[in-house]
Amino acid sequence: MLTRTGINVFQSKDVIKRFIFSIAFVFVLCCILHPSRFASSYYPYIKYSDIENELEPSPHALALVKESDKPLCSLIPKELETSLQYPNESVREYDLKYLAHMHNIAEGGAWEPPQCISQHQVAIVIPYRNRTLQLQIFLSYIHPFLQKQMLNYRIFIIEQGTKGAFNRAKLLNVGYAEALKIFPYHCFIFHDVDLIPQKLSNMYACTHQPRHMSSSLNTFRYNLPYEQLFGGAVAILQKQFELVNGFSNFFYGWGGEDDDFQSRIINRGMTLCRFPPDVARYTMLSHAKELPSDNRFLNLRLGRERFETDGVNTLKYTVIKLVYYPLYTWVLVDL
Ligand code: BGC
Ligand code: MN
């Protein structure tokens, strides 16, 4: 059968099919070659221009400013786009002492801007054991970083004093409980010691919804290995953490505790958010891969039934030592 232009109808259908096939092929190829460009997320990426609107100011700071002669700091400082140096990997004890002095860091690794009242009162909680060099690199990098963001912050290093499997989530619960004894932080950042943020626009502050901060990580080729990932570095409001009953205390060994935490958040009707991939960029300091725990899948499955009965409301631990070091508040804990 011929059309008016003389092309066989069956032939023209074939041409259309080929055309559609070629477009699909090119699209799939692009996705494989440049996955981050086509990155979509199950949880929304906040647009760069919306970051400021999404940040949640601390009500204490807003109250404080009424009794103070200092003004409120802006939610995001203006001069944030300066480029960052990669952390110095050969820091020494001496450099770190110098750092505390040079940067006017208060005992226990706390700081707030001298000229204005920060709208972000943030506890940065780091679960820790046996990573001395990484801790030194992290501290030397993160203090100047956080100060450029004009935060009121303190760094808590929560160290598992006991041998046996590491319990990251329980250490984070301890950090939460101990931080609140020191200051009514409205925002918590739970952060691995080996993660180095690459962009100053990645504000270490809380958004209205809990935020997965380290979504663009070099070791994952700057892609999400799966959509629900909520590990590495996350930011959550104090009231939201309380509402979800914190982390589970059951996850000994590597893996799963962050997945359980994200289920708790979703179960409570919240959603997660992320900053754009080019803002949420991190480098991981290299270390040997941890051996995943065999129990993690079972814990995850059974965890759902324990949201109400396993968490900060049932947290039991003993503080072995609590020291206000120049660059961090150290809590050595028996879990
Ligand atoms: C584990 C998580 C971990 C993630 C990325 C998952 O299989 O359950 O705990 O954060 O992998 O490494
Ligand atoms: Mn790591």
From TrEMBL:
GO molecular function, one term: galactosyltransferase activity
Cellular component per GO, a single term: Golgi apparatus
Cited InterPro entries: Galactosyl_T, Galactosyl_T_C, Galactosyl_T_N, Nucleotide-diphossugar_trans
Major place of residence: membrane
Residues of the Galactosyltransferase N-terminal domain: 100-207
Keyword Cell division: no
Residues in Galactosyltransferase C-terminal domain copies: 211-287
Pathway(s) where this gene product acts: Protein modification; protein glycosylation
Cofactor or coenzyme needed: Mn(2+)
GO biological process, one term: carbohydrate metabolic process
Family annotation (Pfam families): Glyco_transf_7C (PF02709), Glyco_transf_7N (PF13733)
Topological type in the membrane: Single-pass type II membrane protein
Signal peptide: none
Keywords linked to the UniProt accession: Glycoprotein, Glycosyltransferase, Manganese, Membrane, Metal-binding, Signal-anchor, Transferase, Transmembrane, Transmembrane helix
Top-level taxon: Eukaryota
Function comment: Catalyzes the transfer of galactose onto proteins or lipids.
Family: Belongs to the glycosyltransferase 7 family.
Name of protein: Beta-1,4-N-acetylgalactosaminyltransferase
